[in-house]
User: Fold these one by one.
Assistant:
Number 1:
Amino acid sequence: MNKEKFIQEWIEGTISQERVNELKKDPEYSETIAELETIVAATNRIVPPHTKSKSQAWDEIVDKLEEDEVPAPKKGKLIKLSSLVPIGIAAAVTLILAAYFLLSSETSFKTPSGKQMAYSLPHGTEVLLNAETSLSFDTSNWETNRVVKLEGEAYFKVAEGVPFIVKTKVGSVEVLGTSFNVFNRSDMLVVSCFEGKVKLITSRAKEIILNANQASTIIEGEIDEPKEFDIEKTATWREGEFYYEDVPFPLVVEEFERQYDLKVVYDTMTSRPYTGYFNNKNLQEALKLLFPPMSYQYEKKGSTIVIK
Amino acid sequence: MDKESFKSIFDQYYEVIRNFLYYKLGDIDQAEDITQEVFIKAWNKRDEIVISTVKSLLYTIASNLAINHFQSAKKKYEFKLENEERPTSETPEYQMEQQEFAIKLNDVLDQLPENQRIVFLMSRIDDLTYPQIAERLGIGVKAVEKRMHGALKFLREHITQKI
């Protein structure tokens, strides 16, 4: 075990006290341990201050919520910071923001298999990432240049402002304030617009505009005409539900693997289209809904599903 | 989401979110005010909350709200050390020593870069593992390790020889 690793595990508390005592006798470790012991011992007892109890804090929140319980419009409205504070303060805030974003300009998020994550991007834009998705962006010029790079699938809710651009290997999506879903796996890109308007641009510079409730697909550089979609069955991965209508079965299996962090093993895989549904909460049910309808038998072996 | 399930989220995360904001801001009044805002914001988004991601959502809201607040002029850490359960902890000398140490510790924590301070305290006070910290802050485990490493180095240099 190297020393750095040992220190790490000790601080993290994943190493036993006996092992620490043992290593104390080792001249290579004794000095480091002696030095760190003070810090470890002290910070074992360190407590942050508070001025009110948890239940007091809860009561205050309940009071506040009741005050605000005037029926609010369903859609949240963005309030510009500048309308709330005098101009001088606004400038100072901008400076603080600018300093913050300069310090942490390149950001990236990545979700593993079997997990979905929600993030807020600067200035009120929100994004929910499906499993096995990566998103990266540079916040240094965020106010004039909102560009993110995506691989995987994400649902965006974009706050109003300068154009917001999602780049993928296959093409890019450009919007103002709106909500939309982007699915990009290998050479396929599907964009579904939920609110507002979305401009879809292929890597060969062909363009198409999507209105609310329209979706379009790019495969092998070709862009489809916009189609109306069923709002109840689109981008429902956010609730852990997956609906398919005439989708090549291998694509469905790939999504299943991502959701359950499992590997599906097979000799021959049909490319017949699948129509159906599964969710990411009940593995047994998902298996039944996916494989028997396609005339496959399945067997779970550890973290793999073998199908025949 | 109804009020009851929201209350259970509150119960589970109130303290860690308040602590997180305190680590960031060093002003407990401000940290408590913003924590309140965090939960009100979360309540307003209750229809969109996915339980599996609520943790990182709360931390993200907290970070964003903290950015919008001015750094308080009062920034000064007031961490205390709980008494050890041993006979000497009653003596005035010992109490004095402990107080001096706490002052020193607060001072050093203040000088620690914010990123490192937050990770260090989330590990020490909130008892979170590195992967848990990584998830909550939306960063990689490697980044957590790096920040911890920096924090420990700094603390070793600034605390150990002085006591």
Number 2:
Amino acid sequence: MTLRLQNVQKAYPSGFMAVKGVDLDVEDGEFFTLLGPSGCGKTTTLRMIAGLETPSAGRIFIGGQDFTDTHPRNRDVAMVFQSYALYPHMTVRGNLSLNLEVKRIEPAEIEGRIQNVARMLDISALLSKKPGELSGGQRQRVALGRALIRRPNIFLMDEPLSNLDLKLRERTRTELKKLHETLKVTTIYVTHDQAEALVLSNRIGIMNAGDLVQIGRPQEIYDRPCNIFVAQFVGTPSINLLNVTAENSGGSLMIRLKGEEAPLGSITLPASDEVFGRLGMVGSDVILGVRPEAIAVLAEEEAGAAPAEIELVEPMGSVNNIVLRLRSGPEATADGEPVIAVVTSNESRERGEKAWVRLRPERLVIFDKATGNTVAVLSDRRWEPI
Amino acid sequence: MTAQQVISSVSGDDRVRTQATKAGSFRPTLGSIGAIFVVGLWLFPVYWIGLTSLKPIKEINSAVPTFIFTPTGANYWELFTKFDFARVLMNSLVITIVSCFVVIVLAVLAAYSLARMKVPGEKHIALWILSLRFLPPIAVAIPFYIQWQDLHLLDTYLGLILIYVAFNLPFAIWMMRGFLADVPVALEEAALLDGLTRLQIIRRIVVPVVMPGIASTAIFTFVFTWNEYLMALMLTAFKSVTVPVTIAKFVEPYTVLWGQLSAAVVIQVVPMLIVVFLLQRHIVRGMTLGAVK
């Protein structure tokens, strides 16, 4: 079923605005993730869809029908809770079947569905156990099964993987994706883990301080963030933010590191008039966002490359994270952090070595220094507005 | 036996047993010898009462306490034949069980509302409910007597049941509120999304999960009611007289019927032991284990 949120808000009696007006259209069968730091309003939004919280304003449509004032019991949405919320006094079978019993579905049909879901989630052997006898991963499966068995209009998942250890989390993540591809039920997934969001979602909505900041496909969010917050929140290691000046040089955008005379040669590329127009408004002092994989670390000097020193090498197995300090001084980065580059691990580098940083003309974003909003992104070797 | 003793013996039971098995063998220490002494001091009167209930009158009145004698059932026999103790026992059982049941049902519902719903001025209500318990029963005994007389509730089951419900409810609500506050809200939300109504949630989710709390509260309520003396003395005469009141009557102006008194005390303890035994199965810790995380 489709889901539509229309200017949905949640204000608490204390005056705190947990959700400041979310507009959202989720297509039928879509896996949509609300991603954001804790306290950004993503869980509150999910709970409003479930009916566990009442919106202070706005409407919620499920399958085109207004469900804003419908009791949660009658919404036919299934939710997987972060804490699982399994009924401790019931067996796994009882946990799975409660909803169907309440709906007065034939016992034979219930049994069939239990077997089906248990097989799908590999919990057939656990049916007569109680939640207290299960491991964390097994509980998580039962919680998932309790939602699956209902064949609901919409699945709501509130950080369902956050209590699992890393290995299990990644495995379950893959299974969740497979499951969604088989069942194609509209799913709203809440998480603060950007990797989960990128892997699972058809589309992601990034939330910050009660606002839905950006909606887009995972790659879009990663490549074309709409502001610094989104750029920083998505991607590990985090995006590098360099203080630069950007000026028009014969139709091309010439970018210099702050305090450096020589332009970063590799990325002096043509830009559209709109980009120049925007730059005219925000000024030439801007922030350049550089994904760690867009940095080439050179051992020898090269025109248009910035001199730096290797501060630390973090081997990650297939790649190395290289932590660099730009020679132009601590003001080189907007957040005062060193620059991080991700290079393949066969390029051996040592701490303290001199290096030259060359930017690849990909995944680069120019942000307005004052507002943090995106001014331009590099796309097909051309600076374009987002 | 006081309520505290009942509860501590109930909850402490398993722990002590597991510790003893873990230790393997019992090694007498200064502490354990002291404990045995204290327990002996407490249990001796109980033992003595049990012994007395089986003694013939001559042994009871002997100047030197006797421990070895030919036991007799005469005291018990007289209790039931001469003093109509079966009816008294039945009175106590009916009054206690009915008031206990009513108290638990009302307490669970009231405590649930206090713990979960937005009740206007709930903080004040909670304290006010508890403050009812501060009132010494003697302060209201006489007003109740007069009112009960007008309402023709004197010496009736209903009269005593109403009193016991009113007296025990505040405490039971207070106790249940604590247990209910510990039930994870997510459980109820999950049940809500599973399509259960509020009452179904209480019956199928909340009550089973707080069963240990209900059992503890029921034990307290049962013991308080079963042993209550003052109000029963004031408000009953013949028809609905209870066990504690009857026992007191064995202390006569010129003599104390020690044999019958002891037999009655022994019988009075039995229902409490049964209730505690039946309910303690539910007092298992970690009932919510596996519910969350």
Number 3:
Amino acid sequence: MGEIFIQSGLDKNVVVIILLLPVVATMIGISRHIFGLRSLGIYLSLVITFIFFKLGVPQHESAYLSEPIEGLKYGIPLVLLVFSSTLLCYLAVKKWALHYYPKLSIVITGVTMILILAIILLAYFDFKNVLRIETFTLILIVSITEKYFSILSRKNFKTTLFISIESIILAAICYLIISAPFFIDTLLLYPYIILALLPVNYLVGKFSGLRFSEYLRFWDILTERD
Amino acid sequence: MLENLFKVLKNKRKVLGMNERNLEYIRKYNKRKAIEIADNKILTKEVLTKAQIPTPKLINVIKSYQELEKFDFNSLPNSFVLKPVSGLEGGGIDIFYNQDKSGRWIRADKSKATVSDLKKQITDILDGKYSLNQTPDFALFEERIKTHKAFKYFTYKGTPDIRLISFNQIPVMAFLRLPTRESNGKANLALGAIATGIDIANGVTTFAIHGKAGYIEYIPGTKLEVSGLKIPYWDRMLRYAIEAQKASGLNYLAIDFLIDREQGPVS
């Protein structure tokens, strides 16, 4: 079935990502309404999941599976670098009385410069392949920079750090699930199973029970005797 | 373990979770139009005023860069509040208590703001930094509410606020938020403010939690009990909540009150 996509000229890599997008979006919806993770981290988690995924795909043409260890090995340092350089640039321009968007552009410029510098330095000291960056991941990086910046400028540092860690962990879990070869091959073989996500999302959308985080938060009340 | 599980199953109905609140109350009983009004501070003010519920006096609204350029900052009083019209979770709200000799306004933490600091804050608001999905917004100035004497020893700097939840014109729950030193004078739980439940029948505080740390009996660093505090003007606030519900068409309504030293409760 997946062959139809490929015969119609789509790259297998692209097909995999198209099919995985709704899967990850569903997983993240579940993490919010069933587990109770906070909303600001959700978009971030989706993007970070695909950064991990893309970085785990070996760089030869026929490769379409993502290797979990590789994805996390390249992905986590990259995401942490982006986060810390966004923070650094944010702190540098925080006090400047500038409009919001030009300030954001300065931060994005700063983050890109730090990334380039990091690549050059790593190459100089012969640490090749520590940072892997390509067009697709670069666009995702800019979008997480924007998100970090907007959270930083509205919330305090502690909250931002917390949300970032939460989103990296959530992304890592989503990534480990979707990178299972069995999972991807099944999706490619029977792409229409993503239709099954519709009722799943409908059920999650109608779920009015307590979230996992609420069970923890209200444990005292929930376990008290009348 | 098993015993706890049974207790949880039995007690589950005691807690109204976010999923249930959103789906079964806010979504089900509130019209979209009414929610839009509630999300906009200026429209809310109009509706409340029409229903004869006092609100902090509006000093001015800035709707564009042009209006900002023309705005005379000398017309501002010594003490005021600057807010985004469609802000989220209290973001972008700045409270000024006084003015120093060189004309700078002073915040609760003694930091100061010049006219250009205010201008920058307002352009951020206009650019939508604090609004939902970063859509462009308006900035408003309103009078600062002065803390009522009843709270004098219970609060640190900022003004405590009272949230009432009313359902189908019956007030069902209420709590009081007290700013602390830790929360830097802000009534925000995430920052370390205190929240106490209020007995809906008589307006007396019951149990309290401090930030996310858990139950407390005394205001930190004092021997003041957090329970047993009688909230002034309680019946009036209950009445206002019901009136607000009638006027707004929100059948599940949360309304916040501040109690002014002279005016009494304002929303």
